[in-house]
Specification:
Bound molecules: NADPH dihydro-nicotinamide-adenine-dinucleotide phosphate, 2-hydroxyethylsulfonic acid
Number of strands: 7
Pfam family, one: adh_short
Order of helices and strands: EHEHEHEHEHEHHHE
CATH topology: Rossmann fold
Keywords: Oxidoreductase
Largest sheet: 7 strands, parallel
Strand content: 5-15%
Helix content: 40-55%
Protein name: NAD(P)-dependent oxidoreductase
Shape: globular
Family: Belongs to the short-chain dehydrogenases/reductases (SDR) family.
CATH superfamily: NAD(P)-binding Rossmann-like Domain
Organism: Psychromonas marina
Radius of gyration: 18 Å
């Protein structure tokens, strides 16, 4: 494919789940896409699949490594430099134990990825985004940013950071061409729970069987919709759940 005039889309965590579905969605619509993640084999396969549809640049990138993020940005080919849509999607949960039983290493990995990684990529691309006539940043937060639940301690807190960071960016960029959205999905079927529970297939089945969970394609559709709103509209935050999911009562632990 040759370079086209649609805005260039950068997606972190495009090797699975929401990121993968979003890459496919934007490619089908003819947007030039930059796909990143840590798993080179998956990026290669996706790149091969999508290149007949659009311009694709893929790069192995661990968002936790700020030197790598800066080098990645610097070394983007000329045709992909003017990123106008940033989908900060890379992220993970690890474990769901009560806080006093949780692993500190897991907590650090979630903070390093969901908070520091997202900040690294955002900071690196802000100058480019500001230089576009119109730009959109979509940050993957979660319902866990808004609602506490047992076992969510650092995961939920990391997503609350993402949600508030998004609102603060919005404040900074009010009246400019840069739009910012905090996208806050609930239960969605992807490798998320396999990662969270170290590949435990039983647990995966327990969570998703008969739950009619959101699918990655649902999130990809929403992401495309957000970006295709007229330039004067900013979707600040968007919380989305499957109809099978809702809030529960406050618990009262009797003594
Ligand atoms: P998946 O596990 O399917 O995908 C996660 C993606 O993040 C993978 O492509 C993975 O790629 C990438 N990733 C993880 N760590 C890093 C890293 N250090 N550097 C670069 N990429 C990384 O999960 P989902 O698609 O479900 O999750 C996507 C986002 O949505 C996450 O931020 C998650 O917290 C959030 N979310 C998920 C929900 C759900 O229920 N599924 C609900 C609400 C929010 P690789 O391993 O190749 O690096
Ligand atoms: C993922 C949704 O409810 O598992 O962010 O935390 S939840």
């Amino acid at each position: 494919m040759t370079a086209n005039k649609r805005p260039i889309v950068l997606i972190t965590g495009a090797t699975s789940g929401f990121g993968l579905a979003t890459a496919k969605k934007f490619a089908q619509q003819g947007y030039p896409i930059i796909i990143t993640g840590r798993r080179a084999d998956r990026l290669q396969a996706l790149s091969t699949e999508l290149k007949p549809l659009t311009d694709v640049f893929s790069a192995v990138l661990d968002v936790r490594d700020n030197d790598a993020v800066i080098a990645f940005n610097k070394q983007l080919p000329e045709a992909f430099k003017q990123v106008a849509i940033l989908i900060n999607n890379a992220g993970l949960a690890l474990g769901a134990e009560p806080a006093d039983q949780a692993s500190l290493a897991n907590w650090h990995t979630m903070i390093d990825t969901n908070v520091t990684g997202l900040v690294n990529v955002t900071h690196s691309f802000l100058t480019t985004l500001r230089a576009q006539p119109s730009a959109t940043i979509i940050n993957l937060a979660s319902i866990a940013a808004n609602w506490p639940y047992p076992g969510s301690s650092v995961y939920g807190a990391s997503k609350a950071f993402v949600a508030q960071f998004s609102r603060n960016l919005r404040s900074d960029f009010a009246g400019t061409g840069v739009r910012v959205t905090s996208l806050e999905p609930g239960l969605a079927e992807s490798e998320f729970s396999l990662v969270r529970f170290k590949g435990d297939q039983e647990k995966y089945k327990q969570i998703y069987d008969n739950a009619n969970a959101l699918q990655p394609e649902d999130i990809a559709n929403i992401i495309l919709w957000i970006t295709e709103q007229p330039a004067h509209i900013n979707i600040n935050s968007l919380e989305v759940m499957p109809t099978s999911q809702a809030w529960d009562n406050f618990k009262i632990v009797k003594q």
